[in-house]
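Dear support,

I submitted the protein below through the web form. The confirmation email said the job was done, but the results page showed an empty box. After a refresh the structure appeared. I'm attaching both so you can tell me whether what I see now is the final result or a partial one.
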Amino acid sequence: MRSKRTRTVLGLVAAGAMLTLSACGGGDSDSADAGKEASASDSPSASADASQGAEPDLEGIPDVVAEVNGEEVTKEEFVPVYESQLQQAAMQSQMSGQAPDEEALKKQTVDNLVDTELLTQEAESRGIEVSDEDVDAELTDLAKQNQMGSAEELLEAVAKNGLTEEQARAQVETQVLVEQLVADEDGDAEPTDKELRALYAQAKQQQAQSGQKGQKIPPFAQVRSQLAEQAKAEQVGKVAQALVDDLRKDADITINL
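What the results page shows now:
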């Protein structure tokens, strides 16, 4: 039996996108599916203020929330992920005026944890491993993308939202693991300029439709690297979702929540 490690919700997008969501400000979109560039739209202080009123209802959460092919997903693993989801939902509710649906969030959290476990099991069955050096390199890359001086500065930023260094590293480990699994499944092709310009045009169209005239999107050349990260994250999401759909067909899954 493999050693227990903290699993993190993917949302079937690179987990690093979630990390940057709570790390820094200045993005162009709030959608998690938009990848790392869009995930950088919310500041730590805004997240912290919104989360103050979001008290999770943990009554009735079983010690084992799910079992996936004999592997347990525990309450200890579920709670921090659910609390993070609730904080984000509370922040969004400040804009929409609609209170978070906690039962729906619980279901979404456990489903995503099951999906993450399925992908982790598949990666391990293919002999894919992630080293501490891989995690360090990805943290450094994330820090650079968010105009931070070091991985330590990034970890300090996400800590303001209650994400411990261990949880952050586990989240990034999952990201790298799934990215390597996707590369093994689908290759590791770089997005073309044509694809990136299509994403850029889409972002400009969304901005125009939203009426946010005060926020000017930088020139394409200036955001090309961010668009490339977004495109990669979206591709990871698509391939990972297809893998999950296939893996669920033959998996032995029990949800206790």
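Response: this is the final, complete result; the empty box was a page-load delay. Confidence is low (pLDDT under 50) at residues 1-52.
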